Amino acid sequence: MRILVTGAAGFIGSHVAEALAAGGHTVAGLDAVVRDGTRGDLIHADVRDAEAVAAALSGVDLVCHHAAMVGLGTGFADAPGYVSRNDLGTAVLLAEMAAAGVRRLVLASSMVIYGEGRYECPLHGSARPLPRAEADLAAGRFEPSCPDCGAPMLAGLVTEDAPADPRNVYAATKLMQENLAASWAHLTGGAVAALRYHNVYGPRMPADTPYAGVAAIFRSALARGQAPRVFEDGAQLRDFVHVRDVARANAVAARWAAGAPGGRFRAFNVGSGVPRRVGEIAAALSRVLAGPPPEVTGEYRLGDVRHIVASNERLRTELGWCPQISFDAGMAEFADLTRLAQAT
Questions:
Q1: Measured over all CA atoms, what is the biggest interatomic distance in the chain, rounded to whole angstroms?
Q2: Which of 5, 46, 204, 342 has its C-alpha lying 20 to 30 A from 94's C-alpha?
């Protein structure tokens, strides 16, 4: 297949392009930014540029859409940028795909659309907590409580049929991307595999921006000889998945989308399946880099969720994917990249 990867020069998109090319596909790329070392057939253009997108779609069989503004950001002032790049950009792409007769899409989505993860109350069973109040966060009460009785709850795994509950601007735009793609599939007879990524880390991960992932932020602090600063009490649960495993998920999703019946939209969680505490990530990086231990600050950000870990069972059983890079191996590689950067 000839596959167009939007955001092909970015952190995840560049790995996806490489994995698809290694699988025998012809890969074209489109990205608003050209970075050193970017390889392959790359069009330098914004995904909101309809004329450039139309040109990039010539001869294309399938699109892997990764062009986006990512991360939680700095506040609601970021909303216009997120909506423009993520939602308008996706709408332009889908409109041009419809016009060009390209009917197969792999969409880079995110587990953030779920909001808080799945919880169980000892008295009321499965429950969906309300957004955490700032007064509770300021007082160090970080765990969500049952909305019916106020009792502490236990976090569990979220499956793809859980209701969406976006709790920040980025999450809202990722959900809108899915809604746009589902509407496009129904109206055009297309097929969409929406990959809901967990916390992706690995080579080429952006650093030192408000939009960088927490692993990159910790690594940057350690590279400066500083202790990584851990928000809340460090017990927040996340799932850290290596970018090369994510790239392989795109490859199997592309095969699924290529053979799926028209009008189909299917979401897949992409994660390692192993919950990790955020403080554990900071401690692991401090250990392998022989840096200062993490500093647990008690600070917080409104819009952050406490625990979000999703089941990857659907991706495993339906598409035959499983993660291949262990947490220890991935973090060791991550640390080696930091040592290399310090030496140059």
A1: 58
A2: 204
Neighbours of 96 (CB within 10 A): 21
Q: Could you count the other beta carbons within 10 Å of the beta carbon of residue 130?
A: 11
d(CA 112, CA 69): 14
The pTM is what? 0.92
Q: Which residues contact 343 (CB under 8 A, 6 or more apart)?
A: none
Calpha distance 77→209 (Å, rounded) = 16
Crossing angle of the two packed helices 243-259 and 11-22, in degrees rounded to 10: 60
Residue 330 has φ and ψ, to the nearest 5°, of -65, -40
Q: Which of 68, 110, 93, 108 lies closest to 206 in space, CA to CA?
A: 68
- 344 confidence band (pLDDT: 50, 70, 90): very low
pLDDT tens for residues 80-110? 999 999 999 999 999 999 999 999 999 999 9
